[in-house]
Design brief:
CATH architecture: Alpha-Beta Complex
Number of domains: 1
Number of strands: 7
Strand order of the largest sheet: 3-2-1-4-6-5-7
CATH class: Alpha Beta
Number of helices: 8
């Protein structure tokens, strides 16, 4: 049995060279899971880390109930790590948070109350504690993405998200997918809600993004999204005889 089936909410945490953050990440997630309003677990996705992250992940999971992991053989990028976590998770809802803890798992409690009314609930980082260059590049990239996708989302780069798992599993996969999660949910006629969440300075480790990949990648991916949107197939099955109901005798 996939152990994530035992939970209502599975928090996906991509990890790439975050050895300096692992003990703090363990504490914050463990504290949150004890008090979460729904039964929740954490799923680390080690994206081919080259430091000591894998050993630390195994130690953390051995010490804590409701902590699980999968590990890539090679580095495949943030979108692949999120997609792998979604593919593995079998809980009704999945969440996403970055290992840098610039957002806190405690703020999932701001998002979770809306999970049954929206297919995606995501944060808007308020009072951002990033550098001027990072804030400016993020603002430019977000503005261009909104213009291209018409998703109406203020801060798609905020890692704090709660998604209905059946919708998440239908998201088309491509490099840069993580920048378009709201638009990709909307392609399925899913509803999206945005709420302010807290933002903090990175305390340890190094950011994996810089000016070049924070601007160039999103610009190129926007054109890929526009191409895909025109060709996206969305359908609803009205009836079938594959899944028996309670009154059907299948013996």
């Amino acid at each position: 049995m996939n152990k994530t089936e035992l939970y209502e909410f599975c928090i996906i945490v991509p990890i790439y060279n975050e050895e300096d953050n692992m003990l703090r990440l363990e504490k914050e997630l463990a504290d949150y899971l004890k008090t979460a309003s729904v039964k929740a677990c954490a799923l680390f996705v080690n994206d081919g880390s080259k430091d000591d992250s894998q050993r630390l992940i195994e130690d953390v999971c051995a010490r804590n109930k409701s902590f699980y992991y999968i590990s890539f053989a090679q580095n495949r990028g943030l979108s692949a790590a999120i997609k792998a976590g979604i593919d593995v998770a079998q809980s009704p809802y999945v969440g996403y948070i970055d290992a840098d803890l610039q957002t806190t798992p405690q703020d999932f409690e701001l998002l979770l109350p809306h999970r049954k009314d929206y297919e995606l609930v995501l944060g808007i980082r308020s009072g951002r504690k990033d550098s001027f260059v990072k804030n400016l590049s993020s603002k430019i990239a977000n503005g261009f993405r909104r213009m291209m996708t018409k998703d109406g989302v203020e801060d798609t780069g905020c890692p704090l998200k709660v998604i209905r798992t059946d919708y998440a599993k239908r998201i088309p996969f491509f490099t840069g997918m993580h920048r378009f999660l709201p638009a990709l949910i909307q392609l399925q006629n899913g509803r999206v809600k945005q709420l302010p969440v807290r933002h903090f300075e990175r305390m340890a480790g190094q950011s994996k993004f810089h000016l070049w990949n924070r601007l160039t990648g999103p610009f190129m991916d926007c054109f890929a999204y526009r191409w895909m949107k025109k060709r996206y197939i969305n359908y609803t099955i009205a009836a079938d005889n594959i899944t028996p109901n309670k009154d059907t005798n299948v013996g």
